[in-house]
Design goal:
- The chain is an all-beta fold.
- It has 1 helix and 15 strands.
- 3% of the residues lie in helices and 44% in strands.
- A 6-stranded antiparallel beta sheet has the order 3-4-5-13-8-11, with no helix packed on it.
- It is globular and about 60 Å long.
- The protein starts with 7 loop residues before the first strand and ends with a strand.
- Bound molecules: fructose -6-phosphate (F6R) and zinc ion.
């Protein structure tokens, strides 16, 4: 038939169906030197899952797009909220779009000069990530933060460029969400 059943995404929780997906879980043990409090990080269960990315198995190549959902668990390392590692694209000029699906959080964006800003992520939020901009999701809530992302397959990831960390950290202080500026971030 000429009518094809496309993949489905459940807007309520970001679950894909009707299509093969690739799944990758990132655990506490994988997030070396990501959280500010190294002692608190070492005292966490190394196997504890922090986030899972599910991607549609679609073709790669010039002009092609990946589609994936990040499910970021609620939690903290010390007083710092769970977050993704964060990256620039290897092809720096390539942008990306994130769509908030559920939960409450922040998208940390940082340009190549180290200037950082935060956008609130919630169900329905749309985030245009320009080229030359590093990005990281932060779960400031008590439920899973899920966000759908679409990006060029040629973009790639550059994690090493941010080994010095981002210029902002988001922590909980007295039950409040607190944004701290990092020196040498
Ligand atoms: C792809 C993208 C997301 C992230 C995902 C995990 O370009 O931005 O799919 O890859 O949120 O974050 P990282 O890759 O920083 O561990
Ligand atoms: Zn990206």
């Amino acid at each position: 038939s000429q009518i094809i059943q496309p993949p489905l995404v459940a807007w309520a929780n970001g679950a894909f169906s009707h299509a093969p997906v690739i799944r990758k879980t990132t655990r506490i043990q994988d997030l070396t030197a990501v959280f500010a409090d190294g002692q608190a990080w070492r005292s966490c269960d190394p196997q504890l899952p922090v986030y899972t990315v599910e991607m549609l198995e679609t073709p790669a190549g010039e002009g092609e797009l990946w589609t994936g959902v990040t499910h970021l668990n609620p939690g903290k390392v010390g007083n710092e909220f769970f977050m993704t590692r964060g990256h620039f694209h290897a092809r720096r000029e390539q942008g990306e779009v994130y769509f908030g699906l559920r939960g409450q959080g922040l998208l940390l964006l940082q340009d190549e000069h180290g200037k950082a800003r935060l956008e609130t992520v919630c169900a329905g939020s749309v985030h245009i990530i320009p080229g030359f901009t590093a990005h990281r999701l932060i779960n400031t809530g008590s439920e899973i933060l899920s966000a759908l992302a679409v990006w060029p397959t040629i973009a790639g990831h550059d994690y090493a460029a941010l080994q010095g960390g981002f210029a902002l950290r988001v922590q909980e202080e007295n039950q409040q969400i607190c944004v701290c500026e990092v020196q040498n971030g």
